[in-house]
Amino acid sequence: MSSFYAEVLGQNGSYKFFLDNEWRESASGKQLAILNPSTNAPVYSVQACTKAEVDEAFQSAKRAQKTWARTPLWRRAEFLHKVAALMRENAQPIADVLVKEVAKPAVDAYTEVVRSADLISYTAEEGLRYFGEGKLLASDSFPGQDRTKLCMASKVPLGVVLAIPPFNYAINLAVSKIGPALMAGNSVVLKPPTQGSVANLLMVQCFAAAGMPPGLINCVTGRGSEIGDYLTTHPLVNAISFTGGDTGIDIARKAGMVPIQMELGGKDAAIVCADADLAATASHIVKGAFSYSGQRCTAVKLVLVEECIADELVPRVVEGVKRMSVGMPEDNKQITPVISESSANFIEGLVRDAEAKGATLCTGPFRREGNLIWPVVVDNVTPDMRLAWEEPFGPVLPIVRVKDTQEAVEHVNANRLALQGCVFTKDIDRAIAIADAMETGSVQINSAPARGPDHFPFQGFRDSGIGSQGVTNSLAFMCKTKTTVINMPKPSFTMG
Ligand SMILES: NC(=O)C1=CN([C@@H]2O[C@H](COP(=O)(O)OP(=O)(O)OC[C@H]3O[C@@H](n4cnc5c(N)ncnc54)[C@H](OP(=O)(O)O)[C@@H]3O)[C@@H](O)[C@H]2O)C=CC1
Ligand SMILES: O=C(O)[C@H](O)COP(=O)(O)O
């Protein structure tokens, strides 16, 4: 690894954590092993930070925030542009680490880092406009009021933001929190996913090298199950931005009066109408379901197809899936090992449950070597099967044959998860009617679900989230409104 990262790695081969612009080893003396999903062997290790170090991280972030909030907006933007440039320069080493930590195909890992740099640049520009404007309200628009009060509504920072991203977009979902938080004048305590920690530490080095004031971002490493509660209930937390699974529901319950932004799991369904272009639909479904081996919150995790065309659609999907390459992320295969052995066991359990209850495995017998699972298309899934409702987060695509689109919509709306969905039809009126009836955060018409482009609003309903992301909505989350009212002795009308 280049000298750019010399300070990040300790002499004992373990990666350090970052506090007050210093790379440090934890006083715990304990390191966490990160297993390479492709081999299940340790590949890196990081510090298991102590509660005292978490306290220090928050205290230092609190100090830094006071100064940062007084830093002119254009300087905040200038800083973020420098970070983005450094991330582009260092995209390859960060991507190489992602390949080993989370088994993301090499090209996709690189794309994620570049996309993240672009997100930072966009946030800097959008933030300049967003925070550069406030509102002036006059009292006489309210019934019975004279024009004696002028109200200035401005956007002020929240304070210290706790950012917790998941493994699957460890860099992109870290910067989608950090960028808006910093533009708004907040400081950040970052708790990276354990698998994805080293990539996050290298990313933090890009912030440090861009001239970051001490404490503006502190990055503490450790297992969520060990230090998670301590972090999320810390008295110095002023906001939490979390992306992950159902853990987020527990965090939300405990958060109290702290503003939270939650992006949680999904069970994104593709509704296929009888009049859809089946070749294009099958191609969107295959890509949507199996990119990064289905480990995307926005992956197609269920197909609901009108039964009159199911026998035409399913073979096209299966044909596409059989063409996918399976193997190691370094070789840039499309299907790579899933994140962990326990995840692979969970995915296998869902498939076995469906098989035992009479579903059809269209891609042949279930095949798995370690964490590598060959892609599975499961047809004739029925509502009594777990696959009809649960999120596999793996390369498995369940297909439910429905009598009509009303049954499909009812199925979508009965799930506790409600992130995205999509509908395929040539009839735009029908597409709009179905999209309106689907009670999910987003609906794509004639394409698979996707988060990007990253400035689009992105939100989950029900157990899939609280609040909305996308650059502008995240900027809005990262601030609060403050009003200052000018009271005048008598009504005053401009130019009046
Ligand atoms: N809606 C969306 O935008 C997205 C949702 N997701 C969802 O995320 C899930 C997969 O990601 P995964 O990383 O496995 O999710 P997890 O919920 O397991 O972990 C997410 C993050 O939370 C941390 N964490 C774990 N326990 C706690 C705790 N008690 N308190 C605070 N933090 C904790 C993890 O750290 P550690 O790694 O140390 O356990 C990790 O950094 C899927 O359900 C997926 O759908 C993923 C991407 C986007
Ligand atoms: O959270 C996720 O899984 C990703 O943000 C999905 O992003 P994409 O849909 O643009 O791949």
From TrEMBL:
It catalyses: D-glyceraldehyde 3-phosphate + NADP(+) + H2O = (2R)-3-phosphoglycerate + NADPH + 2 H(+). Belongs to the aldehyde dehydrogenase family. This is NADP-dependent glyceraldehyde-3-phosphate dehydrogenase. Signal peptide: none annotated. Its EC number is 1.2.1.9. Keywords: NADP, Oxidoreductase. The keyword NADP applies. SUPFAM superfamilies: ALDH-like. It comes from Chlorella ohadii. The keyword NADP applies.
